[in-house]
Amino acid sequence: xxxxxxxxxxxxxxxxxxxxxxxxxxxxxxxxxxxxxxxxxxxxxxxxxxxxxxxxxxxxxxxxxxxxxxxxxxxxxxxxxxxxxxxxxxxxxxxxxxxxxxxxxxxxxxxxxxxxxxxxxxxxxxxxxxxxxxxxxxxxxxxxxxxxxxxxxxxxxxxxxxxxxxxxxxxxxxxxxxxxxxxxxxxxxxxxxxxxxxxxxxxxxxxxxxxxxxxxxxxxxxxxxxxxxxxxxxxxxxxxxxxxxxxxxxxxxxxxxxxxxxxxxxxxxxxxxxxxxxxxxxxxxxxxxxxxxxxxxxxxxxxxxxxxxxxxxxxxxxxxxxxxxxxxxxxxxxxxxxxxxxxxxxxxxxxxxxxxxxxxxxxxxxxxxxxxxxxxxxxxxxxxxxxxxxxxxx
Length: 394
What we know:
This protein has helices spanning 4-10, 12-22, 96-102, 119-127, 158-167, 187-199, 216-219, 249-256, 273-281, 306-316, 321-327, 330-333, and strands spanning 28-39, 44-53, 56-61, 68-73, 78-81, 83-88, 105-111, 133-138, 172-178, 205-208, 228-230, 260-261, 353-366, 372-386, 389-390. The chain is of the alpha/beta class and 394 residues long.
Protein backbone atom coordinates (compact mmCIF):
# COMPACT_ATOMS: atom_id res chain seq x y z
CA UNK A 1 0.00 0.00 0.00
CA UNK A 2 1.17 3.54 -0.67
CA UNK A 3 0.60 6.65 1.39
CA UNK A 4 -2.04 9.23 0.56
CA UNK A 5 0.71 11.68 -0.41
CA UNK A 6 2.27 9.22 -2.85
CA UNK A 7 -1.18 8.36 -4.18
CA UNK A 8 -1.93 11.99 -4.93
CA UNK A 9 1.46 12.46 -6.56
CA UNK A 10 1.15 9.38 -8.75
CA UNK A 11 -2.31 10.34 -9.99
CA UNK A 12 -2.06 14.12 -10.21
CA UNK A 13 -2.31 14.15 -14.00
CA UNK A 14 -5.30 11.83 -13.98
CA UNK A 15 -6.99 13.89 -11.27
CA UNK A 16 -6.51 17.16 -13.13
CA UNK A 17 -7.98 15.63 -16.27
CA UNK A 18 -10.79 14.09 -14.25
CA UNK A 19 -11.85 17.50 -12.96
CA UNK A 20 -12.29 18.88 -16.47
CA UNK A 21 -13.93 15.66 -17.65
CA UNK A 22 -16.41 15.48 -14.75
CA UNK A 23 -17.39 19.12 -15.01
CA UNK A 24 -19.43 18.20 -18.09
CA UNK A 25 -21.88 16.22 -15.96
CA UNK A 26 -23.78 16.85 -12.74
CA UNK A 27 -23.14 13.33 -11.51
CA UNK A 28 -21.37 10.15 -12.47
CA UNK A 29 -23.07 7.12 -13.99
CA UNK A 30 -21.30 4.78 -11.59
CA UNK A 31 -18.96 5.05 -8.62
CA UNK A 32 -17.04 2.09 -7.23
CA UNK A 33 -16.43 3.15 -3.66
CA UNK A 34 -13.76 2.40 -1.12
CA UNK A 35 -11.95 -0.50 -2.77
CA UNK A 36 -8.23 -1.13 -2.81
CA UNK A 37 -7.40 0.01 -6.34
CA UNK A 38 -4.57 -1.99 -7.92
CA UNK A 39 -3.42 -0.74 -11.32
CA UNK A 40 0.12 -1.57 -12.51
CA UNK A 41 -0.25 0.83 -15.46
CA UNK A 42 -0.57 3.72 -12.98
CA UNK A 43 1.75 2.22 -10.31
CA UNK A 44 -1.27 2.61 -8.09
CA UNK A 45 -2.10 0.66 -4.92
CA UNK A 46 -4.42 2.69 -2.70
CA UNK A 47 -7.91 2.81 -1.25
CA UNK A 48 -9.90 5.08 -3.57
CA UNK A 49 -13.16 5.73 -5.37
CA UNK A 50 -13.44 5.12 -9.11
CA UNK A 51 -15.98 7.15 -11.07
CA UNK A 52 -17.41 6.23 -14.48
CA UNK A 53 -19.20 8.31 -17.09
CA UNK A 54 -20.37 7.18 -20.54
CA UNK A 55 -18.64 3.83 -20.16
CA UNK A 56 -15.21 5.29 -19.40
CA UNK A 57 -13.12 6.01 -16.34
CA UNK A 58 -13.86 9.59 -15.27
CA UNK A 59 -11.87 9.93 -12.04
CA UNK A 60 -9.86 8.06 -9.42
CA UNK A 61 -9.64 9.96 -6.14
CA UNK A 62 -9.22 9.13 -2.44
CA UNK A 63 -12.82 10.28 -1.98
CA UNK A 64 -15.38 11.45 -4.54
CA UNK A 65 -18.10 13.57 -2.94
CA UNK A 66 -20.26 13.74 -6.06
CA UNK A 67 -23.04 11.16 -6.18
CA UNK A 68 -23.26 8.39 -8.75
CA UNK A 69 -26.46 7.24 -10.43
CA UNK A 70 -25.37 3.77 -9.33
CA UNK A 71 -22.77 2.81 -6.75
CA UNK A 72 -20.90 -0.34 -5.74
CA UNK A 73 -19.57 -0.78 -2.23
CA UNK A 74 -16.11 -2.26 -2.82
CA UNK A 75 -14.78 -1.85 0.71
CA UNK A 76 -12.50 -4.77 1.53
CA UNK A 77 -12.27 -5.75 -2.13
CA UNK A 78 -9.65 -5.31 -4.86
CA UNK A 79 -10.54 -3.05 -7.78
CA UNK A 80 -8.40 -3.55 -10.87
CA UNK A 81 -8.55 -3.29 -14.66
CA UNK A 82 -10.63 -6.00 -16.30
CA UNK A 83 -8.66 -9.22 -16.71
CA UNK A 84 -7.37 -10.33 -20.11
CA UNK A 85 -6.98 -14.03 -20.92
CA UNK A 86 -4.57 -14.35 -23.86
CA UNK A 87 -4.95 -18.13 -24.13
CA UNK A 88 -8.40 -19.60 -23.73
CA UNK A 89 -10.79 -21.72 -25.76
CA UNK A 90 -13.97 -19.86 -24.90
CA UNK A 91 -15.07 -19.73 -28.55
CA UNK A 92 -15.78 -23.45 -28.57
CA UNK A 93 -19.36 -22.65 -27.53
CA UNK A 94 -21.67 -19.66 -27.29
CA UNK A 95 -21.55 -19.44 -23.48
CA UNK A 96 -17.77 -19.26 -23.08
CA UNK A 97 -17.48 -15.47 -23.29
CA UNK A 98 -20.36 -14.90 -20.87
CA UNK A 99 -18.98 -17.31 -18.27
CA UNK A 100 -15.45 -15.90 -18.19
CA UNK A 101 -16.82 -12.34 -18.19
CA UNK A 102 -18.51 -12.92 -14.86
CA UNK A 103 -15.13 -14.16 -13.57
CA UNK A 104 -13.59 -10.77 -14.36
CA UNK A 105 -12.32 -11.44 -17.90
CA UNK A 106 -13.18 -8.42 -20.07
CA UNK A 107 -11.04 -9.43 -23.06
CA UNK A 108 -9.79 -12.76 -24.41
CA UNK A 109 -8.14 -14.62 -27.26
CA UNK A 110 -9.11 -18.11 -28.39
CA UNK A 111 -5.82 -19.89 -29.04
CA UNK A 112 -6.20 -22.30 -31.90
CA UNK A 113 -9.70 -23.79 -31.64
CA UNK A 114 -10.27 -22.71 -35.24
CA UNK A 115 -8.42 -23.68 -38.35
CA UNK A 116 -9.16 -22.61 -41.90
CA UNK A 117 -11.92 -25.22 -42.27
CA UNK A 118 -13.97 -24.33 -39.16
CA UNK A 119 -13.18 -20.65 -38.71
CA UNK A 120 -16.71 -19.47 -39.53
CA UNK A 121 -18.23 -21.64 -36.79
CA UNK A 122 -15.73 -20.41 -34.17
CA UNK A 123 -15.98 -16.77 -35.23
CA UNK A 124 -19.75 -16.83 -34.75
CA UNK A 125 -19.14 -17.32 -31.01
CA UNK A 126 -16.37 -14.71 -30.97
CA UNK A 127 -18.58 -12.10 -32.61
CA UNK A 128 -21.43 -12.78 -30.19
CA UNK A 129 -19.22 -12.59 -27.10
CA UNK A 130 -20.17 -9.73 -24.77
CA UNK A 131 -16.58 -8.54 -24.40
CA UNK A 132 -13.84 -7.89 -27.01
CA UNK A 133 -12.50 -11.22 -28.29
CA UNK A 134 -10.28 -12.45 -31.12
CA UNK A 135 -8.66 -15.70 -32.31
CA UNK A 136 -5.33 -17.23 -33.13
CA UNK A 137 -5.94 -19.43 -36.16
CA UNK A 138 -4.53 -22.94 -35.92
CA UNK A 139 -2.05 -23.80 -38.67
CA UNK A 140 -3.87 -27.15 -38.72
CA UNK A 141 -6.80 -26.43 -40.98
CA UNK A 142 -9.33 -28.30 -38.80
CA UNK A 143 -8.24 -26.55 -35.59
CA UNK A 144 -7.81 -28.47 -32.33
CA UNK A 145 -8.79 -32.08 -33.01
CA UNK A 146 -8.51 -35.26 -30.96
CA UNK A 147 -6.31 -37.10 -33.46
CA UNK A 148 -3.82 -34.24 -33.65
CA UNK A 149 -4.07 -30.82 -35.24
CA UNK A 150 -1.20 -31.50 -37.64
CA UNK A 151 -0.43 -35.17 -37.09
CA UNK A 152 -1.38 -35.38 -40.74
CA UNK A 153 1.03 -32.85 -42.21
CA UNK A 154 -1.29 -32.15 -45.11
CA UNK A 155 -3.48 -30.28 -42.59
CA UNK A 156 -0.68 -27.76 -41.96
CA UNK A 157 -1.66 -25.85 -45.06
CA UNK A 158 -0.13 -22.39 -45.42
CA UNK A 159 -2.31 -21.28 -48.32
CA UNK A 160 -5.52 -22.29 -46.57
CA UNK A 161 -4.43 -20.44 -43.42
CA UNK A 162 -3.50 -17.32 -45.41
CA UNK A 163 -6.83 -17.29 -47.22
CA UNK A 164 -8.73 -17.60 -43.93
CA UNK A 165 -6.67 -14.84 -42.31
CA UNK A 166 -7.15 -12.53 -45.29
CA UNK A 167 -10.90 -13.04 -45.15
CA UNK A 168 -11.04 -12.33 -41.41
CA UNK A 169 -8.23 -9.89 -40.62
CA UNK A 170 -10.52 -8.02 -38.25
CA UNK A 171 -10.70 -11.05 -35.96
CA UNK A 172 -7.52 -13.10 -36.54
CA UNK A 173 -4.65 -11.73 -34.45
CA UNK A 174 -2.07 -14.50 -34.86
CA UNK A 175 -1.32 -18.13 -35.68
CA UNK A 176 -1.20 -21.06 -33.24
CA UNK A 177 1.01 -24.14 -33.54
CA UNK A 178 0.69 -27.08 -31.13
CA UNK A 179 4.16 -28.60 -31.01
CA UNK A 180 3.33 -31.72 -29.03
CA UNK A 181 3.90 -35.43 -29.42
CA UNK A 182 0.83 -36.96 -31.04
CA UNK A 183 -0.29 -33.60 -32.42
CA UNK A 184 2.46 -33.08 -34.95
CA UNK A 185 4.75 -35.54 -36.66
CA UNK A 186 7.30 -32.86 -37.54
CA UNK A 187 7.36 -29.94 -35.12
CA UNK A 188 10.07 -28.00 -36.95
CA UNK A 189 8.14 -28.04 -40.21
CA UNK A 190 4.88 -27.13 -38.47
CA UNK A 191 6.40 -24.06 -36.85
CA UNK A 192 8.02 -23.08 -40.15
CA UNK A 193 4.63 -23.19 -41.87
CA UNK A 194 2.98 -21.28 -39.03
CA UNK A 195 5.59 -18.54 -39.42
CA UNK A 196 5.09 -18.50 -43.18
CA UNK A 197 1.36 -17.92 -42.74
CA UNK A 198 1.73 -15.36 -39.94
CA UNK A 199 4.64 -13.33 -41.32
CA UNK A 200 2.72 -12.61 -44.52
CA UNK A 201 0.36 -10.48 -42.40
CA UNK A 202 2.96 -9.41 -39.80
CA UNK A 203 1.17 -11.38 -37.09
CA UNK A 204 2.66 -13.22 -34.10
CA UNK A 205 2.87 -16.97 -33.68
CA UNK A 206 1.98 -18.72 -30.43
CA UNK A 207 3.66 -22.09 -29.88
CA UNK A 208 2.38 -24.76 -27.50
CA UNK A 209 5.46 -26.33 -25.90
CA UNK A 210 6.43 -29.04 -23.46
CA UNK A 211 6.08 -32.40 -25.17
CA UNK A 212 7.73 -31.72 -28.51
CA UNK A 213 10.19 -34.11 -30.14
CA UNK A 214 12.60 -31.24 -30.73
CA UNK A 215 14.06 -29.37 -27.76
CA UNK A 216 12.91 -25.86 -26.92
CA UNK A 217 16.51 -24.71 -27.28
CA UNK A 218 16.20 -25.44 -30.99
CA UNK A 219 12.57 -24.49 -31.60
CA UNK A 220 12.94 -21.10 -29.93
CA UNK A 221 15.44 -20.08 -32.59
CA UNK A 222 12.75 -19.70 -35.24
CA UNK A 223 10.56 -17.39 -33.18
CA UNK A 224 10.52 -13.66 -33.84
CA UNK A 225 9.96 -10.68 -31.51
CA UNK A 226 6.34 -10.58 -30.43
CA UNK A 227 5.86 -14.34 -30.71
CA UNK A 228 4.53 -16.18 -27.67
CA UNK A 229 5.63 -19.38 -25.93
CA UNK A 230 2.66 -20.82 -24.04
CA UNK A 231 2.61 -23.56 -21.34
CA UNK A 232 5.97 -22.28 -20.07
CA UNK A 233 5.82 -24.44 -16.91
CA UNK A 234 5.44 -27.72 -18.78
CA UNK A 235 7.77 -30.44 -17.40
CA UNK A 236 10.06 -32.69 -19.50
CA UNK A 237 10.54 -33.98 -22.12
CA UNK A 238 10.96 -30.51 -23.64
CA UNK A 239 10.89 -27.86 -20.89
CA UNK A 240 12.60 -24.45 -20.81
CA UNK A 241 15.11 -25.75 -18.24
CA UNK A 242 18.05 -28.13 -18.61
CA UNK A 243 18.72 -31.35 -16.68
CA UNK A 244 20.35 -29.34 -13.87
CA UNK A 245 17.37 -27.06 -13.43
CA UNK A 246 18.83 -24.00 -15.12
CA UNK A 247 16.92 -21.87 -17.61
CA UNK A 248 18.20 -22.73 -21.08
CA UNK A 249 20.47 -19.94 -22.37
CA UNK A 250 18.51 -19.93 -25.63
CA UNK A 251 15.37 -19.16 -23.61
CA UNK A 252 17.03 -16.27 -21.81
CA UNK A 253 18.25 -14.89 -25.12
CA UNK A 254 14.77 -15.26 -26.61
CA UNK A 255 13.24 -13.13 -23.87
CA UNK A 256 15.89 -10.47 -24.46
CA UNK A 257 14.90 -10.26 -28.13
CA UNK A 258 11.20 -9.91 -27.40
CA UNK A 259 9.72 -13.40 -27.17
CA UNK A 260 6.92 -13.53 -24.60
CA UNK A 261 6.23 -16.33 -22.11
CA UNK A 262 2.71 -17.30 -21.08
CA UNK A 263 1.36 -19.71 -18.45
CA UNK A 264 -1.81 -21.29 -19.97
CA UNK A 265 -2.41 -23.50 -16.93
CA UNK A 266 -4.76 -25.92 -18.73
CA UNK A 267 -5.93 -29.36 -17.66
CA UNK A 268 -3.11 -31.76 -18.52
CA UNK A 269 0.67 -31.75 -19.00
CA UNK A 270 1.16 -27.98 -18.75
CA UNK A 271 2.10 -27.22 -15.14
CA UNK A 272 3.86 -29.39 -12.59
CA UNK A 273 4.88 -28.01 -9.21
CA UNK A 274 8.53 -29.09 -9.29
CA UNK A 275 9.12 -27.50 -12.69
CA UNK A 276 7.16 -24.45 -11.55
CA UNK A 277 9.42 -24.11 -8.50
CA UNK A 278 12.59 -24.37 -10.53
CA UNK A 279 11.57 -21.78 -13.11
CA UNK A 280 10.14 -19.32 -10.59
CA UNK A 281 13.13 -19.86 -8.30
CA UNK A 282 15.40 -18.76 -11.14
CA UNK A 283 13.47 -15.49 -11.33
CA UNK A 284 12.04 -16.31 -14.76
CA UNK A 285 8.54 -14.99 -14.13
CA UNK A 286 5.74 -15.21 -16.69
CA UNK A 287 4.84 -12.27 -18.87
CA UNK A 288 1.20 -13.32 -18.76
CA UNK A 289 -1.00 -15.69 -16.76
CA UNK A 290 -3.76 -17.38 -18.77
CA UNK A 291 -6.13 -20.29 -18.33
CA UNK A 292 -6.18 -22.43 -21.49
CA UNK A 293 -9.74 -22.62 -20.24
CA UNK A 294 -13.12 -23.65 -21.64
CA UNK A 295 -16.67 -22.78 -20.68
CA UNK A 296 -16.72 -25.70 -18.22
CA UNK A 297 -13.38 -24.95 -16.55
CA UNK A 298 -15.06 -24.12 -13.23
CA UNK A 299 -15.52 -27.88 -12.88
CA UNK A 300 -11.79 -28.54 -13.37
CA UNK A 301 -10.10 -28.17 -9.93
CA UNK A 302 -6.72 -27.23 -11.39
CA UNK A 303 -8.17 -24.42 -13.49
CA UNK A 304 -11.50 -23.04 -12.12
CA UNK A 305 -11.02 -19.48 -13.40
CA UNK A 306 -8.33 -16.88 -14.11
CA UNK A 307 -8.34 -15.44 -10.54
CA UNK A 308 -7.67 -18.95 -9.19
CA UNK A 309 -4.64 -19.39 -11.46
CA UNK A 310 -3.37 -15.92 -10.55
CA UNK A 311 -3.58 -17.04 -6.91
CA UNK A 312 -1.04 -19.81 -7.52
CA UNK A 313 1.59 -17.19 -8.29
CA UNK A 314 0.54 -15.06 -5.35
CA UNK A 315 1.04 -18.02 -2.98
CA UNK A 316 3.97 -19.95 -4.42
CA UNK A 317 5.77 -17.88 -7.02
CA UNK A 318 7.33 -15.11 -4.95
CA UNK A 319 5.35 -12.52 -6.87
CA UNK A 320 3.64 -9.60 -5.17
CA UNK A 321 0.04 -8.65 -5.79
CA UNK A 322 0.96 -5.82 -8.17
CA UNK A 323 3.15 -8.20 -10.23
CA UNK A 324 0.42 -10.82 -10.43
CA UNK A 325 -2.24 -8.31 -11.46
CA UNK A 326 0.10 -7.00 -14.18
CA UNK A 327 0.28 -10.46 -15.81
CA UNK A 328 -3.46 -10.43 -16.46
CA UNK A 329 -3.90 -6.72 -17.25
CA UNK A 330 -1.06 -4.42 -18.30
CA UNK A 331 1.22 -7.09 -19.77
CA UNK A 332 -1.57 -8.90 -21.56
CA UNK A 333 -2.84 -5.67 -23.13
CA UNK A 334 0.51 -5.26 -24.89
CA UNK A 335 0.16 -8.49 -26.86
CA UNK A 336 -2.47 -7.60 -29.43
CA UNK A 337 -3.63 -4.26 -30.89
CA UNK A 338 -7.33 -4.87 -30.22
CA UNK A 339 -6.72 -4.66 -26.45
CA UNK A 340 -4.02 -1.98 -26.37
CA UNK A 341 -6.41 0.45 -24.67
CA UNK A 342 -7.38 -2.14 -22.05
CA UNK A 343 -5.53 -3.25 -18.93
CA UNK A 344 -5.68 0.19 -17.29
CA UNK A 345 -7.94 2.37 -15.16
CA UNK A 346 -6.43 5.56 -16.52
CA UNK A 347 -8.88 8.40 -16.98
CA UNK A 348 -10.56 8.13 -20.36
CA UNK A 349 -9.96 4.38 -20.68
CA UNK A 350 -12.88 1.98 -21.14
CA UNK A 351 -14.46 1.25 -17.75
CA UNK A 352 -13.73 -2.48 -17.84
CA UNK A 353 -13.16 -3.40 -14.21
CA UNK A 354 -12.66 -6.61 -12.25
CA UNK A 355 -13.55 -6.44 -8.57
CA UNK A 356 -12.04 -9.40 -6.76
CA UNK A 357 -12.05 -10.60 -3.20
CA UNK A 358 -8.71 -11.68 -1.68
CA UNK A 359 -9.62 -14.19 1.01
CA UNK A 360 -7.25 -15.41 3.70
CA UNK A 361 -7.44 -19.00 4.86
CA UNK A 362 -6.41 -22.48 3.75
CA UNK A 363 -6.90 -23.21 0.05
CA UNK A 364 -5.92 -26.17 -2.10
CA UNK A 365 -4.24 -25.60 -5.47
CA UNK A 366 -3.63 -28.37 -8.02
CA UNK A 367 -1.09 -28.75 -10.77
CA UNK A 368 -1.90 -30.87 -13.85
CA UNK A 369 -0.68 -34.07 -12.19
CA UNK A 370 -3.07 -34.13 -9.20
CA UNK A 371 -0.38 -32.78 -6.88
CA UNK A 372 -1.97 -30.58 -4.22
CA UNK A 373 -0.50 -27.57 -2.44
CA UNK A 374 -2.10 -25.52 0.29
CA UNK A 375 -1.92 -21.74 0.10
CA UNK A 376 -3.06 -19.06 2.50
CA UNK A 377 -4.77 -16.67 0.09
CA UNK A 378 -6.98 -16.90 -2.95
CA UNK A 379 -8.64 -14.46 -5.32
CA UNK A 380 -12.37 -14.83 -5.98
CA UNK A 381 -14.53 -12.94 -8.49
CA UNK A 382 -16.90 -10.44 -6.86
CA UNK A 383 -18.16 -8.06 -9.56
CA UNK A 384 -17.32 -7.28 -13.18
CA UNK A 385 -17.98 -4.04 -15.01
CA UNK A 386 -17.91 -3.96 -18.80
CA UNK A 387 -18.00 -0.47 -20.32
CA UNK A 388 -19.15 0.77 -16.94
CA UNK A 389 -22.06 -1.64 -16.54
CA UNK A 390 -22.46 -4.42 -14.02
CA UNK A 391 -22.26 -7.93 -15.43
CA UNK A 392 -24.56 -10.62 -14.01
CA UNK A 393 -22.83 -13.61 -12.44
CA UNK A 394 -23.30 -16.67 -14.68
